[in-house]
Design a protein that fits this description.
Elements lengths: L8 H9 L9 H10 L1 H4 L21 H10 L15 H12 L10 H7 L1 E2 L19 E6 L4 E6 L5 E6 L9 E2 L5 E5 L4 E6 L4 E7 L3 E7 L5 E8 L2 E6 L5 E6 L10 E7 L4 E6 L4 E6 L9 H7 L2 E5 L7 E3 L5 E6 L11 E6 L5 E5 L11 E5 L2 E6 L6 E6 L5 E6 L7 E2 L6 E5 L9 E5 L5 E5 L7 E6 L5 E6 L4 E7 L5 E7 L2 E6 H5 L8
Antiparallel strand pairs: 1-8, 2-3, 2-33, 3-4, 5-6, 6-7, 7-8, 9-10, 10-11, 11-12, 13-14, 14-15, 15-16, 17-18, 18-19, 19-20, 21-22, 22-23, 23-24, 25-26, 26-27, 27-28, 29-30, 30-31, 31-32
Helix pairs in contact: 2-5, 4-5
The protein binds heme D.
Length: about 525
Amino acid sequence: MRSLLKASGIVSALLLTGAVSAADISTETEKLYQDQCAACHQAERVGGIGPALLPQNLKRLRRPQAIDVITNGRAASQMEGFSDRLTEQQISDLTDYIYSKPKVMPTWQEQDIRASRIVNHTQGSLPDEMQFEADPMNLFIVVEIGDHHATLLNGDTFEPIHRFKTRFALHGGPKFTPDGRYVFFASRDGWVSKFDIYNLKVTAEIRVGLNTRNIAVSSDGRYVLAGNYLPHSLVLLDANDLSLIKRIDVADDSGKSSRISAVYNAPGRSSFVAALKDIPEIWELAYGDSKVTADTEQQAADLPVRRIVLDDYLDDFLFNQSYELVMGTTRPKQEGRKRSAEGQVVSLESGERQATLDLAGMPHLGSGITWDYNGRRVLATPNLSTSEVSVIDMESWETIKNIPTEGPGFFMRSHKNSPYAWVDVFFGKEKEAVHIIDKKSLEIVKTIRPAPGKVAAHVEFTKDGRYALLSIWDMDGALIVYDAKTLEEVKRLPMVKPSGKYNVWNKTRYEEGTSH
Ligand code: DHE
């Protein structure tokens, strides 16, 4: 991943963390950690009141930031500053310690998962009527990563309805139940939370791992599947109360284990599909035939894993409209990997590669979207390392156009009712810019710079596609509402580093212009 993202700040963050060998850590520093930090972050650094302090979990925190947090504390959290108790050298040593690989890697087994579960409100104990006035299908959840909150936003009036605290460092899209009443969040530290939108309450939480990638919710609303980096596992939960149904170790026939890159629901197949980062396989868990039963052992037996062995690794991916094909990125330059990045199209029916996509740089297919162009379906994807958006014909699988952009982009979004696709320049010098592409001409028709010097990224449309909402990723940030036709700004709401925003209708209807 590092080589893929050279151009990005993410990479510099990763490199700056510079994992220290456990052998370099003195026993005094270990004792210092146990005395000063373990009460909140746990003796094994797996997190408690405070987040996990393992190298995997700290990849996105630069070392100078870590020193600053230990010295001065973290605003709006229980983390206090230690400058009055520790010397600069001790703080530096502690920083080395938390970035070092533990001598014994902590585990997170079934009993840990079960023991972590918190139930605030049992299913059925809260009213079934929505406790506020709004179209339940045109609500947005906006994640504000700056201070670990989320805002429920009315998608008609653009008025915030409720702002609430989330777990530390949410990542990936929150996922809704099909009726839009509940939303599930995943944090990088492995917490899955269930929020009842109608009652504005967190009903249950469970920690599924030590470092989690993302979650998916089944089309029937019965299951939540979480994919982990640490430990190498998939965790299946009952969506009602977040109780554990089963934990699956992710490994190939030889016992080689793997991180999960991503899990998604495939509504057309009534299954979950997971991409494995370290093994050339994708896994499918079909829940369609599973019986509705209170017997979790029965349910677990009903969801066997189908392993599809590939001829190369597949990482970041999306489905075609019928959910028969997976279009994924092959990551370059890692052990055992064949070649530099390319795209592969794999049939979920036969398990065979159908086509190879000729893509430059590091396409971010997980952020790809599709639309009809001149009577055929095209797939468009931003690129994490080159300054272009690739547009691919989904019949011939040829790249029909590379649209030059002002820098590498992360998120691309549209709506079937909108003539435009929006793409950011997340990693470039021009990170303040967002391009608006005409889906008919495949030309950039407008470039906006709504907040000079600040990253502008991640668009989600209202249910009807009339408005597009964009984030300004800054502690002094904003959510900006645009008229999706005139491209004029309509409203600006102050927010604390808003990242993604998720519209109930678009997400539960698997709208073609958004992520799933
Ligand atoms: Fe994400 C979604 C992977 C870094 C913000 N990101 C996803 C998904 C994957 C992914 C697989 C889809 C999950 C889902 O929605 O169910 N992200 C990765 C990486 O591999 C990468 C590059 C490195 C890493 O550290 O994990 C990465 N991602 C980031 C960030 O640095 C971002 C910008 C800030 C952050 O919050 O950490 C970031 N990722 C997001 C967001 C989504 C996301 C906002 C949801 C997009 C959506 O609209 O669905």
